[in-house]
What does this fold into?
Amino acid sequence: MLLLPPGITNAVTATVRVPMNIAFVKYWGKADERRMLPLNDSVSANLDDLYAESTIILTTDAEADGVIVNEVPMPVGEGTRFAKVFAEFRRMIAGTDHAQAKILVVSTTSFPVKAGLASSAAGFAAIAYGLGKVGELNDAQVARLARLGSGSACRSLYPGFVHWDSSKTGDEDTFVVPVESGIEFASTLFAAVFVIDNKQKTVGSSEGMKRSVQTSNFLKYRVQEVVPHHVNLIKEAVSTADFITFADVTMRESNSLHAVCLDSLPPLSYLNETSFAMINAVHDFNSTPAGVTAAYTFDAGPNAVVLAQLTNAQRLISHFSRLPWAKFVFETKDEQLKEVLNVQEENNHGDLPEIRVILTKVGKGPAVVP
Amino acid sequence: MLLLPPGITNAVTATVRVPMNIAFVKYWGKADERRMLPLNDSVSANLDDLYAESTIILTTDAEADGVIVNEVPMPVGEGTRFAKVFAEFRRMIAGTDHAQAKILVVSTTSFPVKAGLASSAAGFAAIAYGLGKVGELNDAQVARLARLGSGSACRSLYPGFVHWDSSKTGDEDTFVVPVESGIEFASTLFAAVFVIDNKQKTVGSSEGMKRSVQTSNFLKYRVQEVVPHHVNLIKEAVSTADFITFADVTMRESNSLHAVCLDSLPPLSYLNETSFAMINAVHDFNSTPAGVTAAYTFDAGPNAVVLAQLTNAQRLISHFSRLPWAKFVFETKDEQLKEVLNVQEENNHGDLPEIRVILTKVGKGPAVVP
It folds into this structure.
């Protein structure tokens, strides 16, 4: 049962859980900053166990809007992304009983916010999904609210593989659509999220995208030629459960994104030497007679997300456990993946740097927490 | 006076000195592996004090061809680049007095061979230039011999800025041409070569180029659109002594090359974290009110070459001397640059890693050593 904050008695509430998503065809560059429209399509799936859980409270008992994330109050004043989302929500519910209500959000994430994982995308997806419940919004409105908060948040709203279609720009358009057989294919996969420490201060995605749009020659070509090709290939790979093509496109897409970053001026460098060691480790894993059985992908940060089929989980964990340059510390909340972890061998890894690895299944959709 | 090796009495000899060059518009990708034709044009200048000095001996007193580089005998058998160059040289001088002579080469480089600098390009340029002297070859023949040994070697054969034109593919074509006012502009510049240690084992340029040609989407676009635009811009910048445009294109070209490398599968990563720290240091230097007064460029390795006008030498050295993450140890053979080094301040840099920096003027051509 939800405990309302002190002084709040009359309220409409919803508590929701929404996972963060990882893109296999990458979003990099905005066509419209204000409306948060992307320059190109992207394709993603959710990482089930990396989620934001948010309670949304609409009440006239509060004096002002408020957002608390992992017990820390966030600024919600003009110019913040929260204010932008709340203003649009109020436009959507104008004329209803709740039009005068204040909005309170209490949110927690199941993963470290400062680990360079996309916590704000999951957070805004949860806020949008929760506002949709309390405000009785339709799917297109919820998706648009999520996108306003953090572009890629809109991809967290559906189970399976989802396709964010950049050609759908109207306010009532359905711009996030499920990929055919995306739930079935996702159910055969898992992800290993490698939390890699980043000593260098990096440029945030929004600022980085802007720089690439302004200075990179390759971004234009990527948007016009590379991404449409990759979107077709990966949708076909998902719908036919063709892991090899899925992995090939996923790795090329990650490389393509970081190549565009490097082609910017000043260049954007999100990968560090550990990231490249991870890339090499995956290519080595794929060079065995078993063939291409894993794929890496990196967002705007050094953390690797490695995708593989559940049937290859033990082999992948053994491979990383044997690497001589780090001690990988695996953890998971998933019962099936917990069993797989039993293969971990004891190694003389005492002196090596530790890298935390979160194992999770993929493709779960958002849910209302009862 | 040249001392001939023991047993060699009847010989034709030449001793030459040829500097290594650094490209500002980069060569990456071969159109023809056998003839060493490039996929795209490139533009470079020589680094005066980083040179190979080679003595070429044609003699019938020797039993076999031989090459000694920095006192180490090199393999010259079938399949080596030396054998390829010597065979082509013999075809060129067929029917002359020297057609039956063996070829001996004794070469030294003025810089460390294993520092990841382009020692083989300077070496092959010197061999080709020396063979041209003893074999009385024309310029096109010398350039073709140099290219056969190491593609970019052909760019070392002229003073000032040179343009390697990929459209000139005939055997008698002049494919390396001076850039208008290139000697004048070069005379206003100097280069700082930062010798950065590379812990990672990298893929050699030839193999790396092949991988990019086979797998990178961006390489095609680079060859067709980006490079022609950059060649025009940089030729114009050189001929009008427009340092700002020269620097802008130089940095974009370096980034573009490394972006193509990253867009390859598996990705090629030649820059390390020190390289990126160097890139940031140059952008910081260019962010002062003095404006864009330096440019970095990186070949297929972590070493930065920073170009600047001689009038900014003191300011550049001061800037690097003050950086808190390394102790830069400057050295130069050039009298004018030696004076500039007096500005180096004593710093508490005792515990920092040392980075060796070679200062040199640019644009000197090859020469016969008397």
